């Protein structure tokens, strides 16, 4: 098989949650443990950091990887989903996994992993762990896929666990209350292993983390309390941060919630320093200021065009899109155009209730089975006072928005990571 054939095989043989939803979800760690046995436990050959949470875990993972990379470590980074190329999920010092390795991995192990019947995510994780071992990384930053307690990645024994925040998402699997969701996320807290909580949330949510950490004797750090002299300011070029031990410095990421991610990351760095990691202050500055170039991060308030200004963001639930909606209202533009689509398993009404009413909407559907029908989305949106037309593809929606937009208008593309994934190749080639 060549690379394209190999990727097609993975999609066809291994159900992928990101594309088809709950039918691909496999609860529990049995498959992951079975694959780990087949691959001879590669994650035991290097240090790991485990990052979970409802929103911000991708940005947090990339920032930590960039900082560690600038500190002189050889760093693996495992994230999901990918936006353009499958290999975005698996990086070492920012470079994507070799195509030939993907081919060789499938050919070498298919007879062993096929009887296990793993999900796409489970197998991809095993591939990542093996690649990191082959590349002799010093440390790997591992992003949780879904939840935590029963997530495939929860077979590792990290040096640090990070939980960014708790919000409503994936309630079908994680529960319909924030404490229940927090319980699942808290599942990545390991015995005697420090854990950083980015946002405290409610008292009930905080207590879930306190109880879990206490039960396994894990040092618990709430970033909002630890980094109490932290300050953040939006600038025309992104953010400027300040904290104890870190005088004023810029951040490369421009998204509306990056202040929260920054405080979480700085706290995580301080905890890593306490555990013996060598992380110079300059590495922190360089990591924050160069994260997109260092790690290839895309889709976080990413500007794709300047005239008219076009922004995309992968925020896909009410917790994340609330910040996006607030930022859109602050943007200086003549008219707002929104190319908008959602997955069919999200709380659509909760999201639509947050979105700006002054904008012109281009309701669309991404090219995955999980995508919500654009006509149904329009019907639900109208009930919330959102007006616009429907387009069967993201490309058609973007084209219509560009035709209608003036030079001083703003086009926003989002609502789902799949919408952004369909959009990016139109601008990046």
Report the top-level CATH class of the largest domain. Alpha Beta
Order of strands across the main sheet = 4-3-2-5-1-6-7-8
Q: Which homologous superfamily in CATH is the superfamily of the largest domain?
A: Mur-like, catalytic domain
What does the radius of gyration come to?
A: 21 Å
Shape: globular
User: What is the count of structural domains?
Assistant: 2
3D structure, described in words:
The chain is of the alpha/beta class. It has two domains: 3-295, UDP-N-acetylmuramoyl-L-alanine:D-glutamate ligase (3-Layer(aba) Sandwich), CATH 3.40.1190; 302-428, Protein-Tyrosine Phosphatase, Chain A. The chain has helices at 3-13, 17-20, 30-38, 57-70, 99-113, 120-134, 171-174, 178-185, 203-215, 223-226, 258-274, 281-295, 318-330, 348-352, 374-382, 394-404, 417-428; strands spanning 47-52, 75-78, 90-92, 95-96, 139-143, 160-163, 195-197, 220-222, 231-235, 238-243, 246-251, 302-306, 309-312, 336-340, 360-364, 387-391, 410-414. The strands form three sheets. Strands 4-3-2-5-1-6-7-8 form an eight-stranded mixed sheet, sandwiched between helices. A six-stranded mixed sheet has the order 12-13-17-14-15-16, sandwiched between helices. α4 (57-70) packs across α11. It is globular, with a radius of gyration of 21 Å. The two termini are 25 Å apart.
